[in-house]
Each structure stands twice: as C-alpha cells, then as structure tokens.
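ok so i was messing around last nite and threw this chain in just to see what happens. nothing serious, just curious
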Amino acid sequence: MHAGCGSGGKNLQPYRGSVQKVNTGSVLVKETSESFSIVAESITRIDTIISKIAERHA
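result:
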C-alpha cells in the first residue's frame, strides 16, 4: 500500500493548492503578455502615423 492511500487524499491538499496557484499565475502571465503585445502594436502604429505627419510638415 502506498503512503497516503487510506487518507482520502488529505496529504495531497497542499500540492493541489500549489498547482492551482501555478495555473492561475500562468493564466495571468499569458494575459499580461497578450496585453503588452497589443500595446506594442499600437505604439508602432502611432509612431508610423506621427512620422508621416512630421514628413508632411517638414
């Protein structure tokens, strides 16, 4: 018999909590990365627009 088999999984509870925190953190990192990518794309577009305006007024 393995250790903890008769305990109803109580010994696994701290690990389940850690796994949940890691999963939550992974989702947050992914969402943050996607948001930064959107911001970077927007900045690139803004830079292009400003450059074109500056060329016209130079």
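not much to say yet. Residues 13-56 form the longest helix (44 residues).
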